[in-house]
Amino acid sequence: MRKILISIIFSFSLFFLNAEDLPKGYGGVELGMSFENVKKALKDNLDFGYRGERDVSLLPGENRALIETDTTTYAGFSFLDRCWFQFYDEKLYVITININREKMDHFSIFDTLCKKYGNPVSVSPEKSVWKNDSVTMSLERPLTLKYVDQKTFDSLQKKSLVNPSGVEMTRDIFLKGL
């Protein structure tokens, strides 16, 4: 009985250890990096196909910027396709990496992530999600890997809370009546 209990505790500790070890990014680009450091890391890693300032744009709202890369012209050898790097207050808070479906498949990535980080906390036909206190990593269909700085994302979501529109409220009333 004692061996079974120790085995169960060990299994749970491995599960939580994996959940805590989620990566903060890929290819030398990590959540929380400054805008300038991300540009440097993208230049250093040719897999992203970063071309420089022409890939940078400002997003609506305060203190928001976006870097978009495309490997089709500048890094045809890469397993990556298009990537987006979203910033708030000069810090990277969302990394979205589309993976080239001609070179890689969803199951291979899913299987690798499960082996490295344990089972996802949620699975649906659209996406699988791994999460800890600071990072949410998701593998979305058809083949997108996303890293989100959860604290910044939650903060921005709270700031942008908007009351539901009349259409949304009546839709909810209709659905509740079913």
Provide structural commentary.
The protein starts with a helix and ends with a helix. The chain has six helices and ten strands; from the N terminus they run αββαββαββαββββαα. Helices cover 37% and strands 29% of the residues. The strands form two sheets. An eight-stranded antiparallel sheet has the order 3-4-5-6-10-9-8-7. The longest helix has 19 residues, at 2-20. With 178 residues, the protein is of the alpha+beta class. It is globular, with a radius of gyration of 20 Å. Mean pLDDT is 84; it is low at 1-20.
Write the layout of secondary structure elements.
Layout: H1 2-20, E1 25-26, E2 29-30, H2 35-44, E3 56-58, E4 64-70, H3 71-74, E5 80-88, E6 91-99, H4 106-117, E7 122-123, E8 127-131, E9 135-140, E10 144-149, H5 150-159, H6 166-176
Antiparallel strand pairs: 1-2, 3-4, 4-5, 5-6, 6-10, 7-8, 8-9, 9-10
Residue-averaged pLDDT? 84
Helix content: 25-40%
Distance between the termini: 50 Å
Form type? globular
Number of strand elements: 10
Provide the spatial order of strands within the biggest beta sheet. Answer: 3-4-5-6-10-9-8-7
* Content-based structural category: alpha+beta
Stretches with pLDDT under 50, minimum 5 residues:
1-20
Helix count?
6
**Helix and strand element order:** HEEHEEHEEHEEEEHH
The profile of the biggest β sheet is:
8 strands, antiparallel
Any idea what the radius of gyration is?
20 Å
Strand content: 25-35%
Key descriptive features of the protein:
37% helix, globular, 8-stranded antiparallel sheet, 6 helices, single chain, two-stranded antiparallel ribbon, 178 residues
